[in-house]
Design goal:
The chain is of the alpha+beta class. The protein folds into 2 domains: 272 residues, Alpha-Beta Barrel (7-stranded beta/alpha barrel), CATH 3.20.110.20; 243 residues, Beta-galactosidase, Chain A, domain 5 (Distorted Sandwich). Helices cover 30% and strands 28% of the residues. The strands form 4 sheets. Strands 15, 16, 17, 18, 19, 20, 21, 22, 23, 24 and 25 form an 11-stranded antiparallel β-sheet that branches. Strands 1, 2, 3, 8 and 9 form a 5-stranded parallel β-sheet that branches. A 5-stranded antiparallel β-sheet has the order 10-11-12-13-14. α16 packs antiparallel against α17 and α16 runs parallel beside α18. The longest helix is centred in the middle third of the chain and has 24 residues.
C-alpha cells in the first residue's frame, strides 16, 4: 500500500520596516489573527509559521495575546516556527557578519519567547545563491524552503520534486524543500476541493516513494489580498479546506518540515543556481529585456509544447534591481557603508551598548522591501525608503556622537560610495551630511541628522513594463473579487495614463540646466524640454579651498551651450560652502561664456517631506498670497527671492533664498506604479527650480546664488 501524501503548509507573514501602524493593524485583523483562530480549532492539522522580526516586535507591543496563542500551539507541536533574518533582509546582498547576526537574533528571540530553537529557514523572497548553505548551516539551521522554479531551471522534472533534497557548499550541507507552484496558484483562489483533488492525483499517479507536497507562501493571501478575507472567513474557505484535509486522512496527512525530515529520506543531492520565484526574476529584468521575455513566453505558449512556458524562459537575478534602479543601488551601498562603520566600532569598542543600538538600526535598514519593485510598491513607496534612510542615518549619528566626531566641526572625505568608479564628496557636521556626485556636481543626498531624515530622497520617473496596461483605454477600477495579486490589473483612479512621464536623468538636487529662453514649466515638469547644455550630467572637477569650517568645495566644468545657430563654450563654477553648523548651505555660481550667450539657466532641486497633500506640510511665500500651498501643487512665481517649505510633523523647515530674484517653478514628482491593490499615483517629492534668463557678451561673467537654510520649528 502506498504511503500517505505528506502535505506541508508553511506561512510567511511580513510587513516592511516603516510601514504605517494602521496598515499592520488591518493585516492583523483581516489575515494574521483570523487564520490562527481557525487553525487552533484543528489541532490535528500541523503547519509551519514564520513571522518577520518586524511583526514579532509589533505583536509584542500591540497584541501579546496573539503570541500566547502561538505559544500554546507550538507547545503541543501543531506549529513549527521558522527562522530568517530578523528584519527580513535578502541574505545574499548583506555581509556575512550581518547574515549571521540577523539569523542569530531571530533564533534567540524564538528560543526566549517560545522555548523552541528553529531548525529551518524561510528565505526572504526565496532568493537563493549557491553560497547560502555555508551561511545557513553556519547558523545552526537544517533546512530552507525555495521555489520549484529553482529546480526546474537545472532541468529537474516537476514530477520528481515531491520531497526534499540535500545541497552543499564547501562541505556545509543544508536540506532544501521545493515549493509547489501549482499549490501557490490554487490556494485559496480555487475551491478547496480542487486542491484536495490535485493532491490525490499526486498520490494516485505518483511514485511508490514518499510524496511530500509543499505550499509555503505569504500569509497575507489568507485575508489581506483583495477579496480573500471574505473568501477565507465569510465563505469559510479555510474551514472547508481543513475539514477536507481531515476527511481524507486515509491517504493524506499534514506534517511540518521537521516532521518530514525526521520520517523520510532526502531524494538526492542538488545544486541550484542563483534564482528566485519566476515573477521576481522577470521584474528584475530591464525594460527591453522584459519585452523580449514576454515575447518569448508568448511564442512558447502559442506553440503549445511547454507545460509552463514561464519556467522555460529565464529571467534575471535580484541584484539586477541595483542596476535597474539607481536609487536601490544608492541605498544598498549606503547600507554597506554603514555596516562597515558599525563593524569597525564593534571591533574597537568590544560591542558595547552603543554598538548594539547602532547595529539594531543597521539591521532594520536591511529590510528588503524598499530595495526593489515588482508587483508591490516597494521602492516606489517614499515612506519605506525614508525608513531605510532613517535607520542608516541614526546608526551613523549614534556612532559619531560616541566618537565625539560631531562636535569637531566640518569634515569631508572623497569615497566611491555607489560603486561606479568615481568618488563622491561627503561633507558632514553635527547637524547635516551632504553627498555630492562629480557627475553633474549634484547633491545626491542631504541628511538632517538630528531628525534622522534624508531631505532629498526621491525617485526618478521611469517606464515600467506594466505601464502599457495602464494606457489601455477604458481602464476600470478593481472589484472585491478574490484574485491572485499576480493577475490584478485594476487602477485606483482614472486618467493615470495621462501622467506617464519619464525623466532623462536620475533625480537629484542642484542640477544645472540650460534650456530655451521660452521654455515653459509644463514642458519642464513633463521632461519634454530640450537640454541645451552638457552640464546636468557632465563631469565636473573639484578643488577644495580653505580649512576647517571655512572650507569651500569648488566644482567647475568647461562645457557648451547650444543656442540653435551654434554652440558656445562656457565655464561654469559652482562653489559649495556650509555655515551655522551646516544648517546653511550656499551654492554660488559664476558663468563665463566664450561668445555671446542668450539662454535660460535653471537649477533643479527636490525636497521630499513624504506627504504632498497633508495640511501640516506646505509652502510659504513671504508677502504673497498663493492659492495652493500644498507640496504637490504646481505653480510659477515671478521675481521671487525666497520661499519656505514646512513639515510640522517632522519639525523641520527649509528656506530657500535666491540672488538675484528669479522666476520660480514648483511641481511634484509623481510616479505611477503597481501595488497590491492596483495602479496608483505616488508623490515622490517637490521639484524646486529657480530660473534666470541670461543675455551676456563674450567674456562677461554673471553670478547667481542659492542659499538653503535648514531650521527647526
Amino acid at each position: 500500500m502506498k504511503n500517505k501524501v505528506r502535505f506541508v503548509l508553511g506561512l510567511h507573514n511580513h510587513q516592511p520596516v516603516g510601514n504605517f501602524d494602521h496598515i499592520i493593524e488591518d493585516a492583523y485583523l483581516r489575515a494574521y489573527l483570523p487564520f490562527i483562530e481557525v487553525m487552533k480549532d484543528y489541532p490535528d492539522i500541523s503547519f509551519a509559521l514564520h513571522n518577520s522580526g518586524i511583526l514579532w516586535d509589533w505583536f509584542e507591543e500591540k497584541h501579546p495575546a496573539y503570541l500566547d496563542i502561538i505559544a500554546s500551539m507550538v507547545s503541543v507541536g501543531q506549529v513549527e516556527l521558522m527562522s530568517a533574518g530578523y528584519y527580513e533582509p535578502i541574505l545574499t546582498v548583506i555581509p556575512e557578519r550581518d547574515r549571521q547576526g540577523q539569523l542569530s537574533m531571530m533564533s534567540d528571540y524564538l528560543m526566549k519567547r517560545f522555548k523552541t530553537r528553529p531548525r529551518g529557514c524561510w528565505l526572504t523572497e526565496r532568493i537563493w545563491d549557491p553560497h547560502l548553505p555555508q551561511t545557513l548551516a553556519g547558523s545552526g539551521l537544517e533546512y530552507v524552503v525555495v521555489d520549484d522554479s529553482h529546480f526546474k531551471s537545472t532541468g529537474f522534472d516537476p514530477a520528481g520534486l515531491k520531497g526534499y533534497f540535500f545541497t552543499e557548499e564547501n562541505g556545509s550541507y543544508i536540506k532544501v524543500f521545493p515549493i509547489d507552484k501549482n499549490l501557490r496558484y490554487l490556494i485559496p483562489f480555487h475551491g478547496p476541493e480542487e486542491t484536495i483533488q490535485y493532491l490525490r492525483t499526486l498520490w494516485e499517479t505518483g511514485e511508490e516513494k514518499d510524496i511530500i507536497s509543499v505550499l509555503a507562501d505569504d500569509g497575507e493571501k489568507f485575508g489581506l489580498w483583495t477579496g480573500t478575507n471574505s473568501l477565507c472567513y465569510k465563505e469559510n474557505w479555510l474551514r472547508r479546506f481543513c475539514e477536507l484535509l481531515l476527511a481524507n486522512s486515509d491517504w493524506l496527512e499534514t506534517v511540518t518540515f521537521s516532521e518530514a525530515i525526521d520520517t523520510t529520506a532526502a531524494r538526492s543531492i542538488v545544486y541550484l543556481p542563483t534564482a528566485s520565484y519566476t515573477e521576481m526574476m522577470e521584474w528584475a529584468l530591464p525594460l527591453k529585456a522584459q519585452e523580449v521575455y514576454h515575447a518569448a513566453k508568448e511564442a512558447l505558449e502559442s506553440a503549445g509544447s511547454f507545460p509552463d512556458p514561464a519556467e522555460a524562459v529565464r529571467g534575471g537575478l535580484w541584484r539586477n534591481f541595483l542596476v535597474k534602479y539607481e536609487e536601490s543601488n544608492w541605498m544598498h551601498k549606503r547600507m554597506m557603508m554603514v555596516s562597515g562603520l558599525v563593524d569597525d566600532y564593534g571591533e574597537s569598542r568590544r560591542r558595547d551598548k552603543v554598538w548594539e543600538e547602532a547595529r539594531s538600526h543597521l539591521y532594520q535598514a536591511q529590510c528588503n522591501c524598499a530595495y526593489w519593485h515588482g508587483l508591490f510598491g516597494g521602492l516606489y513607496l517614499p515612506h519605506l525608503r525614508s525608513a531605510i534612510f532613517r535607520h542608516l542615518i541614526a546608526a551613523e549619528r549614534i556612532i559619531d556622537e560616541k566618537n565625539s566626531r560631531s562636535a569637531e566641526g566640518l569634515h569631508h572625505e572623497l569615497r566611491d560610495i555607489d560603486g561606479d568608479g568615481i568618488d563622491e564628496l561627503l561633507i558632514s557636521t553635527g547637524d547635516v551630511k551632504l553627498f555630492m556626485k562629480m557627475k553633474g556636481a549634484v547633491l545626491r543626498e542631504l541628511d538632517v541628522r538630528k531628525a534622522d531624515f534624508n531631505l532629498t530622497d526621491t525617485l526618478t520617473r521611469r517606464e515600467e513594463y506594466y505601464h502599457r496596461k495602464i494606457a489601455v483605454s477604458g481602464q476600470k477600477k478593481g472589484n472585491d473579487q478574490a484574485v491572485s495579486i499576480h493577475d490584478m490589473e485594476a487602477a485606483k483612479e482614472e486618467g493615470l495614463e495621462k501622467l506617464l512621464f519619464y525623466d532623462n536623468n536620475p533625480r537629484a538636487s542642484l542640477v544645472d540646466h540650460f534650456i530655451d529662453p521660452g521654455s515653459k514649466i509644463e514642458a519642464f515638469a513633463r521632461s519634454e524640454y530640450e537640454e541645451k547644455g552638457d552640464f546636468a550630467a557632465g563631469d565636473y572637477s573639484l578643488r577644495i579651498e580653505g580649512a576647517g569650517d571655512s572650507r569651500v568645495f569648488h566644482f567647475s566644468r568647461n562645457g557648451r551651450v547650444d543656442q540653435g545657430a551654434g554652440k558656445v563654450d562656457l565655464k561654469l563654477d559652482k562653489r559649495i560652502s556650509l555655515s551655522d553648523s551646516g544648517r546653511i548651505i550656499d551654492a554660488e555660481y559664476s558663468l563665463k561664456p566664450s561668445g555671446k550667450l542668450k539662454t535660460r539657466f535653471a537649477v533643479e532641486s527636490v525636497i521630499s517631506f513624504l506627504a504632498g497633500n497633508a495640511p501640516d506640510r506646505y509652502f510659504t511665500f513671504s508677502g504673497r498670497e498663493v492659492k495652493e500651498r500644498n507640496l504637490s501643487s504646481t505653480g510659477e512665481e515671478e521675481g521671487l527671492d525666497t520661499f519656505q517649505m514646512t513639515d510640522e510633523y517632522l519639525g523641520v523647515k527649509v528656506i530657500f533664498e535666491f540672488d538675484p530674484v528669479a522666476i520660480f517653478w514648483r511641481f511634484p514628482v509623481e510616479t505611477i506604479s503597481n501595488s497590491d491593490s492596483g495602479f496608483e499615483r505616488v508623490y515622490q517629492g517637490s521639484v524646486l527650480v529657480p530660473v534666470w534668463d541670461i543675455d551676456i557678451q563674450d567674456g562677461e561673467t554673471c553670478n547667481f546664488s542659492i542659499r538653503l537654510r535648514i531650521d527647526s520649528i
